[in-house]
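Dear Dr. K.,

Following up on our conversation at the group meeting, I've run the structure prediction for Stage V sporulation protein AE from Frisingicoccus caecimuris. I'm pasting the input sequence below exactly as I used it, so you can double-check it against your construct before we proceed with anything downstream. Let me know if the numbering doesn't match what you have in your notebook.
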Amino acid sequence: MMFLKAFLVGGLICGLIQILMDRTKLLPGRIMVLLVCLGIAAGVLGIYKPLVDFAGAGATVPLCGFGYSLWEGVKGAINDEGFIGIFKGGFSASSIGISASLLISYLASLIFNPKMKK
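The predicted structure tokens came back this morning:
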């Protein structure tokens, strides 16, 4: 059942983002920033935590989940370390995911021979 919940919630988030991309003139980079900021805002308001508890990876894998994880890291670091946690928390909370994506991207570039667009 948890796979179905993750699939439905993740699919709904991705579907709404696809509609946003198709119906507006927003550039993909701006939409990505909007998603991260929405994840942070939803985390601050306490809206995103119940969604993560319900859907698991369906809520944490989309880009708004990255914003939520940044917020959770900052919140935890502020509680533990005070003011310096504002700057340190987001980095420590997201470092594993960012490192993994860089490593996997590098390995993919070695295997698949990437080319620049003209």
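Two things stood out to me. Helices lie at 2-23, 28-44, 48-55, 57-60, 63-81, 85-112. DSSP finds six helices and no strands in the chain.

Best regards,
J.T.
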